[in-house]
Amino acid sequence: MASYDKTIESYKRAVTTAASLAASAMLVRGVVNELVPYEVRDLLFSGLGYLRSRMSSQHTVIIEETEGWANNQLYDAVRTYLATRINTDMQRLRVSRVDETKSLMFSMEEGEEMSDVHDGSEFKWRLVCRDTCSGGNSNGNGRGGNGNYKVEVRSFEMNFHKKHKDKALNSYLPHILATAKKIKEQDRTLKIYMNEGESWFAIDLHHPSTFSTLAMDHKLKQSVMDDLERFVKRKEYYKKIGKAWKRGYLLYGPPGTGKSSLIAAMANYLKFDVYDLELTEVNWNSTLRRLLIGMTNKSILVIEDIDCTVELQQREEGKESSKSNSSEDKVTLSGLLNFVDGLWSTSGEERIIVFTTNYKERLDPALLRPGRMDMHVHMDYCCPESFRILSSNYHSINNHTTYPEIEELIKEVMVTPAEVAEVLMRNDDTDVALEGLIQFLKRKKDAKEGKAEHVEHVVKKEENEKETMMTKSDVPENQVPQDASKE
Questions:
Q1: What's the rounded Cα separation, in Å, for the pair 232 and 102?
Q2: CA 9 to CA 3: how far, in whole Å?
Q3: Per the record, what are the reactions this protein catalyses (predicted)?
Q4: Beta-sheet pairing, 375-378 with 273-276
Q5: What DSSP element (H or E) covers 50?
Q6: Where are the beta strands (DSSP E) in 216-345?
């Protein structure tokens, strides 16, 4: 009983002492806030924080998702590396699968922690997310306008004992980079990015197009492949001649001739990600530059239908027109040219830029010169060679009794590969599908001939009317008809 009373007294003294210390601390804090200038307080508190950090045995390395406007490659490497070492017994776990051919992907949830051991040393990881306001030429939803908008900033925090600092920086982080690179090479999934505001958003690219399945002239196809091969092998050459390591391609021709399929074939051939830039989503030249900086190396930038996505301001227009539009949100031609071939184009390496258009003649000549669009690829109507590729793709045949007739018809009418492919897909029976194609081509031929006859009829009618008018105009105004003079 006596020992129990002593314990109670000891507990009371401890509580009284703690309360007294807390009250004293609050009193001292109040006095300091009242009497000590805030500059001195900040200096004092920063000094105390420094002493606390120096006395702590733990060090922290922060790895943010972006560095300025550029992606932080170390952040991507850490995310890939930790996904293979994550503990599925964690209280909160993020699980996803974006491809049915892939296994489940595990990743850390915000605020969760995990440990990893490297060379006998323990390193603790934590995912941190915070919202920050970003000023610029965007509105609240990040789609343009003026004002601030919220941006989520994500980072990994790595904690470790201070005696492992050299190992963390000189061994562990390089190990993570090397391991992540191997993981990505083994399980490489191409991405296609879309722009929204000043950011890129990605999904997996599963387009099956390859050069072997692409319906186009063989010589033209081979020239594109040779040009791509030469480009990716010329890093030192581009450095020696003082040019950015990039290559521009203009794909032009009627709709349905395979321009998008060629882009996908290029991506699959080189294993490059695709950045599909929608210029109507970009209202400022500065946003255009930030998007370029945000692209990765080994990528293809695509601007489809460049002639009609935006009304680019021509550089040769008068100053008055430029001034009248200065207040509007416009991407100018000069801004686009600088994006493609100016100083900002050197912000990355091994990049391919592709423009597509149905009407090459509508483009400003400044966009078409070598150094911007280095190779112009004419995507034409279907030819006999293209037809054979499509027939092999859709019906796995290399020859058929109907081939001579079909190829002769294809030479006489203008039909796109997309139209031929659509007819071939209508029936799984090869004979029926090819017979359907023959009938389709004959209808197009008849329509072409009927249109030609109609045009010829109209032209002849106009010529006859013109001759009649000329005959009437040859009669002098004062000439009196013979019958009238007799009267």
A1: 29
A2: 10
A3: ATP + H2O = ADP + phosphate + H(+)
A4: unpaired
A5: helix 38-55
A6: 246-252, 273-276, 299-303
CB 227 within 8 A of CB 266: no
Q: Give exposure, 266-301, as e/b (b: 16+ Cβ within 10 Å).
A: bbbbbebbbbbbebebbbbbebbbbbbebbbeebbb
| Token duo for residue 17 | 């002492």
**Partners of 299 in the β-ladder:** 273, 351
Do 380 and 357 touch, CB atoms closer than 8 A? no
Range from 50-64, 106-120, 328-342, 405-419 that averages highest in pLDDT? 405-419
Top mean-pLDDT range of 37-41, 282-286, 448-452: 282-286
Q: Coil, strand, or helix at residue 33?
A: helix
Residues in contact with 278: Cβ distance below 8 Å, sequence separation at least 6, in sequence order = 194, 195, 309
Q: What phi, psi does 418 have (nearest 5°)? A: -65, -40
Q: Which of 215, 210, 208 is nearest to 421 (CA)?
A: 215
Token couple for 149: 């908008």
**Residue-wise pLDDT tens digits, 381-407:** 999 999 999 999 999 999 999 999 999
Two structure tokens written together for 251 = 């794909």
CA distances from 233 to 65, 115, 181, 238 (A): 30, 41, 20, 10
The span from the CA of 289 to the CA of 189, in Å, is 26
Per-residue pLDDT at 16: 77
Pairwise CA distance, residues 223 & 221, whole Å: 5
Q: How far apart are CA 207 and CA 359, in angstroms?
A: 25
Would the pLDDT of 412 be above 90? yes
Residue 419: exposure state from Cβ atoms within 10 A (0-12, 13-18, ≥19): middle
Query: How far, in whole angstroms, is CA 46 from its chain's centroid?
Result: 44
Q: Please state, in angstroms and rounded to a whole number, the distance separating the CA atoms of residues 424 and 445.
A: 18
Residues 104 and 160 sit within 8 Å (Cβ to Cβ):
no
- Residue pair 289/334 in contact by the 8 Å Cβ criterion: no
